[in-house]
Amino acid sequence: MAPDPKLNEQQAGPTLAPIVFAIGVAVILVGLVLNLEVIAPAGVLITVLACFLGGVNPFGGFGKVMSVFLALIILQLLSSGLNLLGASQHLATAIWGIMLVGVMILRWVAGQLTFLRITR
Predict the structure, then answer these.
(1) Which ranges of 5-120 would DSSP assign to H, the alpha helix?
(2) How many Å apart are CA 101 and CA 104, to the nearest integer?
(3) Against a cut of 0.85, is the pTM above it?
(4) 100 close to 48: Cβ distance less than 8 angstroms
(5) Could you give the CA distance from residue 47 to residue 41 in angstroms, rounded to a whole number?
(6) How far apart are alpha carbons 3 and 82 in whole angstroms?
(7) Tens digits of per-residue pLDDT, 24-40?
């Protein structure tokens, strides 16, 4: 069945290609920054966190690569600071998880505030 040529990308619905591309780029950058041979579960957590911090929409998959790159730099600075303080890897992973949950909550609250402004 051929797609309807009258539908543009907005009408056809979002695709997952942009989010897969952004996550792929982030995985490669995290692997290069952290010098990982195999991306461990903590590496995937950091990658997802970088995409969320970079403003990639998890539902539509749209975002900017430069924003994700900036988020990776911020996360690397935080990681270096934790290493200088002598924090264990388990504590660092817990902090990444707390940051991920915090960013998700902040984005949800921001979306709710925008929704309330629109409905008023």
Answers:
(1) 9-12, 17-34, 41-53, 65-85, 89-119
(2) 5
(3) no
(4) yes
(5) 10
(6) 51
(7) 777 777 766 666 555 56
